[in-house]
Amino acid sequence: MKLNSTxxxxxxxxxxxxxxxxxxxxxxxxxxxxAVGFDYLFVDTEHGGFSxxxxxxxxxxxxxxxxxxxxxxxxxxxxxxxxxLDVGAQGVIFPRVESAALLEEAIGWMKYPPHGTRGFGxxxxxxxYEQLSxxxxxxxxxxxxxxxxxxxxxxxxxxxxELLAVPGIDVAMVGPTDLSISLGVPGEFExxxxxxxxxxxxxxxxxxxxxxxxxxxxxxxxxxxxxRGMRFLGCGSEHGMMLDKxxxxxxxxxxxxxxxxxxxxxV
Length: 267
Fold this sequence. Notes:
Layout (H helix, E strand, L loop, with lengths): L4 H7 L4 E6 L6 H9 L3 E5 L7 H14 L2 E5 L5 H9 L4 E4 L5 H10 L24 H11 L1 E6 L2 H5 L1 H5 L6 E4 L1 H7 L9 H16 L3 E6 L2 H4 L9 E6 H28 L2
Parallel strand pairs: 1-2, 1-8, 2-3, 3-4, 4-5, 5-6, 6-7, 7-8
C-alpha cells in the first residue's frame, strides 16, 4: 500500500519542501517537481479553477512519481474533503480555520470509523490494486492521511492554542499573505506584527506537538522562516516559478544581445 513519505520524513524531524499547483492542468508538472526533489505539492482548489477530474489526474500522477499530493479545499465541507481523498490525495489542507468545533468535525470526515465519520470509498490505485480486507484499508488510510490546517487571520492566531489542541492535526501552516492583510500590514512579511504573531504560533505548535509550516510566494520569502522553526516549507507556485525563470532568462538574453550589438557597432 502507498506510504506517505512526507509524513514519514516529518516524523524524523526533517524539513519538507513543497509547492502549490494553481494554474496549469498538466500531469507532467508533478513528474517534473518529483524529478528535481520536491517533497510535496498541493492542488489549490480554493483559488485555482481545477475540476475534480483534473485533481484526480494530478494526484494519480503525483503518487506514481513519488511526490506527496495534498489538496487545499475551498472550504470545510464534507463532500469537498472526502472526494479528494477518494481520488487519492494523501492529505487535505483546510483554509481559513477559526473554529475549533468545525475543525474537529472536519478532521472526523477524513478518518474512517471508529476514529471519524468518513464514508468508505476510494480508488484502487491508493492501495496499488492489492486485495485487502476493509479493516486493513481503513487502518492504513487513517494512518497515512495528513491533516494540514491553515492559520491566516488575526483571530486564528489569537486562538491558536485552542485550535492546535484539536486532536488529529499533523501540520499547522501559516498563510502569510492573508495574515498580513488581516493584521493591517498587507505584504509586509517582516513587520513586527507578523513576526510576533508567527513566533507565538510556532511556540504553540511545539506545545501541542504539531509541525509548524508556512507557504510563501517564492523561495526567497520562504528561506528566513527556516531559522524561525518552520519544517513544512512551501515555496511558491508552478506558474510563479515559470514566470520568474522566464523573466530571468529573457533579461539575460536581452543583456547579451545589447552587449553584442554595442560591440558590433564599435568595430
